[in-house]
């Protein structure tokens, strides 16, 4: 299977716009102190408009790339664009309630699976749902491993009087190392398990991207991401 750059690039930018919209909506909106008449539209307006415009343009580019690849597949391209829009709306609507982890991992897997189907590498329904369940379980496993490392650092810092273990940069570095080990170990193990081998690459990509963004924003830049149904 070969995916052209003309399709992969706008698809990646579409995912970025989608995440940015959901993240912006999860933030508290603010208004100018001197706005006594309610003219200030709020701090969310500009980033939402920019991200929405980026996502819309990238959807158009994805459809154009599909039509160029298969001249007779105009209906398929239209179906793909509509499906991406629907998935984007569901992601934005559920981002705060499900939380960053589950909403992002599931959305990435669904988008990857749907776009693979559009280029002729789709799966039947059982394989799709199997991959989705694996994605969610794998994401929770990776998140739990990172949370264990961070909580252990705080506990050791308290019990052993080592303030260095509270340093966010140190914790982020340890979490990054643990994440790499988890991704590599699970990937090597999954390649030997026949029943999940056919869906494993999209699962690995979905979880890898989700957790990489989590480590960068949550641990390095200390950005608060919605936990949703995950309480630990």
Characteristic key phrases:
232 residues, globular, 8 helices, mainly alpha, 2 domains
What does this 3D model show about the protein?
It is a single chain. The chain is built from eight helices and no strands. The protein is mainly alpha-helical. It folds into two domains: 1-98, no CATH class; 104-232, no CATH class.
Poorly predicted sequence stretches spanning 5 or more consecutive residues: none
Strand content: under 5%
Give helix and strand order, one letter per element, not per position: HHHHHHHH
User: Termini distance?
Assistant: 39 Å
General shape: globular
Radius of gyration: 20 Å
Helix content: over 70%
How many helices? The count is: 8
How would you briefly describe this protein structure?
The protein has 232 residues and is mainly alpha-helical.
Outline the fold blueprint.
Blueprint (H helix, E strand, L loop, with lengths): L4 H22 L18 H25 L4 H25 L1 H19 L6 H35 L8 H23 L3 H4 L2 H21 L12
């Amino acid at each position: 299977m070969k995916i052209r750059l003309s399709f992969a690039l706008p698809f990646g930018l579409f995912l970025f716009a989608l995440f940015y919209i959901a993240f912006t909506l999860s933030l508290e909106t603010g208004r100018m102190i001197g706005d006594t008449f309610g003219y200030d539209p709020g701090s969310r307006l500009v980033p939402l408009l920019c991200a929405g415009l980026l996502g819309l343009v990238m959807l158009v580019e994805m459809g154009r790339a599909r039509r160029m690849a298969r001249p007779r597949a105009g209906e398929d391209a239209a179906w793909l664009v509509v499906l991406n829009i629907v998935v984007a709306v569901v992601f934005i609507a559920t981002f705060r309630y499900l939380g960053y982890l589950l909403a992002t991992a599931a959305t990435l897997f669904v988008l990857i699976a749907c776009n693979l189907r559009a280029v002729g590498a789709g799966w039947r329904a059982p394989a799709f749902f199997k991959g989705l369940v694996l994605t969610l379980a794998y994401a929770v496993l990776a998140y739990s491993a990172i949370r264990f490392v961070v909580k252990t650092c705080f506990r050791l810092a308290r019990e052993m009087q080592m303030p260095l273990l509270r340093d966010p940069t140190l914790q982020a570095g340890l979490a990054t190392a643990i994440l790499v080990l988890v991704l590599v170990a699970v990937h090597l193990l999954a390649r030997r398990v026949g029943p999940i081998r056919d869906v494993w690459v999209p699962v690995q990509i979905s979880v890898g991207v989700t957790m990489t963004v989590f480590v960068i924003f949550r641990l390095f830049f200390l950005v608060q991401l919605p936990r949703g149904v995950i309480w630990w």
